Amino acid sequence: IPSQEIIDSICGKEFDSDIKPPVTPGIDLTLSLLGAQLEDFAAQFSDVAGEKLERARELSREGKTDEAYRQILQMRNDKTWHLLANTIRGRVLRFNASLILNAEKNISEAKELRDQAAALDPTGDDVSLRAVIRYFEEGSDAALQELATPTNINAFNLKIGFLTELGRADDALAVIERLP
User: HSE (CB half, 13 Å, CA atoms) of 59?
Assistant: First the structure.
């Protein structure tokens, strides 16, 4: 079409890439404040989820593993799961794996959950889970290799339990006498 006026009428005027969009005063500050509030919300939300996880752990310690498992599944299936901090999601997945091992002896599912947790939280403490997986795969001696230097109370208790199961009561007592 030979006329630019006709082309502009049909197609609209050509966009000039050198023209910058209008600057809205305060938009950067507003976005910054919203971002900070979102980070605060996510941190508080993760704290609440951490408390739920600890309640589920306590239920498990009380022998109410079905209820603990139900609560963990509810957390994982909640539409807000992806909003949780990776460290919390990793801890939930590791606990879920231990529940699966104890209830169903499903080593492959426990390993899959352990791997998912490691991807989310590579520095998370999974020594107890690794020990229990090895226990179900190879027995108490292999599990003890994972627990050479326990890093938390669960690992410490597992080590004592495996030593006792192996009939090594003197070694278990020696470990208890050298509390970390």
Answer: 17
Contact 128, 155 (CB under 8 A): yes
124-149: average pLDDT:
93
Question: Has residue 24 got a pLDDT over 70?
Answer: no
Is 146 within 8 Å of 134 (Cβ atoms)?
A: yes
Q: What is the reported pLDDT for 44?
A: 77
CB atoms within 10 A of CB 150: 19
How far, in Å, CA of 143 to CA of 137, rounded? 9
| Spatial separation of the C-alpha atoms in residues 31 and 50, rounded to whole Å | 28
- Residue 96's contacts (CB-CB under 8 Å, 6 or more residues apart) are 69, 72, 73, 76, 113
